[in-house]
Here is the input.
Amino acid sequence: MTSIGTGYDLSNSVFSPDGRNFQVEYAVKAVENGGTAIGIRCKDGVVLALEKLVTSRLLKKDANKRIATVDRNIGVVHSGLLPDGRHFVSRARDEAQSWRGTYKAPIPVSSLANRMGSYVQAFTLYSSVRPFGITAIVGGWDAETDVDVDGAVGSGPKVGAGGKTKGVKEGGPYLYMIEPSGLYWGYYGAATGKGRQAAKAELEKLKLDPKDGECISLEEGVKEAARIIYVAHEDSKDKDFELEMTWISAVNGPTKGRHEEVPKALKEEAERLAKAALEGEDEDEEKMEK
Amino acid sequence: MASLFNAQSMLDQPSYSFAQPTSHSEPRQHSFYPYTDNGGSTLGISGQDFAILAGDTRSTSGYNINTRYAPKLFKIGGDGPNNTGSKIVLSVVGFAADGRALKERLDTVVKMYKYQHGKDISVGACAQRLSHILYSKRFFPYYVTAILGGIDEEGKGALYSYDPVGSYEREQCRAAGAASSLIMPFLDNQVNLKNQYDASQPQGFGKEPLKPQPLSRPHVESLVNDAFTSAVERHIEVGDGLQMMIITKDGIEETYAPLKKD
Amino acid sequence: MNHFPQAWGRPRDDVYGQYNPSYLPQSHGGTQQPITHTQSPIVTGTSVIAIKFKTGVVIAADNLASYGSLARFTDVHRLKHFNRKSVVGVGGDVSDMQYLDRLLKSLDVEENYSTGSHTAEESETDPAMMGANNLHTYLSKVMYKRRSDFNPLWNALLVAGLDEKNKPFLASADLLGTTFSGPTMATGFGAHLAQPIMRRIVPDEAASQQLGREEAVQAVRDCMKVLFYRDARSMPEYSIAVIDEKGVELKEKEVLENQSWDFADKIRGYGTQTV
Here is the structure.
């Protein structure tokens, strides 16, 4: 890299003459080595999925979960340096909790992304710290119906001031991705880690933008997520991996508005389909070669 | 500052203003009374190589019966949440919430003792520790009368009784709680043979009082039963069930027998 | 200059007048009001009642929050659903109930930080899920701590549900931190009016293990009716929850049925009078 030896890459609080912060760029490199993580914003929920590379045969299967719950309705998946991710999650939980303390209601996903973006960005400003070595995908469901404030009793006035406006709908599924620089955007589909290029290519094929008509459903999303993780793993086929998947639906959906692990049966079905799809592709390729 | 700037010596001097922490000493007014009496009675008797603790299982609030089964006897120490292998029993009667808090503190302390020293605590040491725990809340006491039972280092039955702020002594027998004034005189007479004289001696001023002898286990158990069945008749807060714990060198035997529920 | 170092450099009273410390906080000599704590409940809920049956627990409380003798709020839900194994019924001060509800919510969030599934078929065997007994221990410690700080939460709670071995569990905790458990439980007026009725149906633990779900629900409904007949701080709309191995079934808009006030005009005095 051109920066080596110039001295501009040694500290956070120093720009290079061409306006780059090399420490942040190195942090991005750390992310690029992590297992692939993706998030899909579907019509009726959000799916988070992770390619968890097995670093040792001595680790128990399906233990050591990596996708974390931050508040009832929000989950975080990240790739990069694991301990940095842990700290990120811990901070996100504090933010969610303090929001509840102030507003007596769950934090909206956008506000959490905003606060965590600011937090991560602060680690690019000072020479005494280094940036986060992770990219985090934050997914959640903001309640679209009227929700009581925490601890509310009764149902409030039915008409008049303080009453409810009919037909107004807010909330829904949200997905954000926060990078080591502190940059964050809202996404229809987000991917990071080693297999992000392949994953993004697959995500772009999905119907995720509501402007293009009906988006895919949450259950389709789960199956696509599993398939995409398997596709993204193709380039590092020699390594073992475990698929970890969580989802969040509306209150009237399968998870009742909570961030939860995808049920075993559905996950196994999704993995079976994912494997079948990959084999199908291989067969196609073989046919082509013939 | 009043003490520092003594009025006499300050008379001819200019005075200064300092923070006056005097308003601190005003008593705070509270209408909340943090105690209640949950009734019930306990008793303990020690024998040659055993100690028995017993308590009824009724819990009351005024004229209400909260429940017919709320144990007042707790195993202390041993392993795990069920205190397996424990050889010390604590009985508490009075304010049940304090009783529970006290039991949990003593249990933790006794378990920590074993982790730190690699051996079980002796009843004597445990008894003194309990006294210290009670006294540590001298000015906001645990409103309970505690009795601690176990086997001492010579293999003899040991029984310690307490007041709410930690004063304690080792005794042969003790009744506590709502019906203590009914049961204790009975125990004085039957265990320590108070006011009993040798019938074969001629009547007169020189009568020889009977000397208390160590009692057998079946005998003590029947005394406990009699004490409680009688207390149930005369005290409304006592009844429902009788729980007994018999501590011997082999461990703790626990029994339960129904009492009248009226 | 004098020999009191504390006085050196300080304004003299004979020059500047006495310093008025009244606005300072109490810890610095101010004369502000002392810290105050709840001395009595304000807006209150009345009884909560519950019965254990063979495979679970039924619990009920009416939907009224009273302001003294005023029926102030009539759609207040006093049964709090914690997880699929437990429900807390709250009587006493409503603002303290709201505090407890928030406490429970944050506890629930923390309990579920590690991702796990909560769909029925999988969490049935989840050994990590808090049982109703664990929740009761937690709440009773909260209550006892607050009474020991002379700042009580003015409530009487019933915790109903299943323990970690999926056995029915029912216990109470009150503002003093006192706890007890039994096959039938009632707080407030219910301890006088409903408890005797329930104990007739379920005299002991063995009887509750014979009791069916329908009978238990019916007994609780009957007791709610008696409570409405005789408790002036009650209302006919109530919440009822059944917790068993299938999860929590909570209904918050039940209304008393088949009321009969025929007995009322025959009552003299407290009901024991005959003429």
Remarks:
- DSSP finds six helices and ten strands in chain A.
- Chains A and B do not touch (no CB pair under 8 Å).
- The helical segments of chain A are 22-32, 82-103, 109-122, 196-205, 218-233, 264-289.
- Chain A has a mean pLDDT of 90.
